[in-house]
Here is the input.
Amino acid sequence: MELISLDQVFRILRPGVPLPFGVRDAKGRLLLAKGLVVQEQGKLYDLLNRGMYVDVDEVERRPSVHAPGNAMPALTERLSVRWEACLRKLGLLLRAPGSPTFLDEVRDLAARMARLPEGHTDQLIFLIVRHDYRQTERYVEAHSLHVATLCHLVSRRLGWTESQRLSLIGAALTMNLGMVNLQAKLASQRTPPSPQQRAEIHAHPTVSADLLRAAGLQDQDWLRAVEQHHECPGGGGYPRQVQQPCELSQLIRFIDAFTAKHSVRAGRAKLAAHQAARDLYAQSGGNPLAAALIKECGIYPPGCYVKLASGETAVVTRRGATAKEPLVAALTNGVGEPLSRPVQRDTAVPARAIVGTLAENAVMVHVTADQLYD
Here is the structure.
């Protein structure tokens, strides 16, 4: 049985209409049988938020799959919809660590992320770089999802085992469990943290691990990564000044710092993603984990705005053959006039080479991931 997440086919479902396929959990166990009628749209959204699954074969056997106007959407399309579903689900989970299903649902979410294919890498980075941080009420889940996603991508590049990667992703999703309310407040707070807030920040790795243990987590790699994700080799971190923190915690630490640098908050300006990467590499002393992160994202990561030698303004869409030559979508012509639609450019061509990066507020034409990716 091959499972896909419910969000990939969610738009087929209608309240008051029999389910066209069964709804299952991450292990394939049937929860709602085909033909069952869900009367309320809110109940359907509950299934989506819980991260349910469906059997691919059952979806493709739908009688209406070839009916005009009822074509089955491609199972690989609209990553942005699945991304939004993960963001929504994580937001609910992080605010309910006492739920009896909390740990199972976090594990399910981590497993879903670990199954994301390599073909989606550029779009995932684009969604992270171009996230709208003006939505400060979603900062908590957005930051954790961004860190977990990059952990997935970089650990895959490094060839880590599936067990290591699942522990890593789970730890990234839950690293700030012990300071959810404070993190949400700090996202919109324009003043520096108070002494009381700093104490809570200092304690949150331990508090987060304690909450996970209370939920029943026994994965020591996951717990250690959460407890040590602010520790630095040599004892320079917190809360326990660990001399040799574990490798999983250090990858989370680097990615946490990288994503924090290029995310805006009320009291902190946004640093361009390429500059955040350079700063991180310098501050890490050339650590191989930091280097792997930069290689995965590229010098000009997808979502980065650039100026071309042609005078065009463009947004990076895909990493290229070299780190300095990504593929981009031109948004304006050479004199700054908006194009009717984005036009693909290869910056390996000298006339289209990147001559500089642009701040978000210098770009007047904006596009979504759905406009740029199939």
Summary: Confidence is low (pLDDT under 50) at residues 64-77. Residues 3-65 form one domain. The chain has three domains: 3-65, 79-297, 305-372.
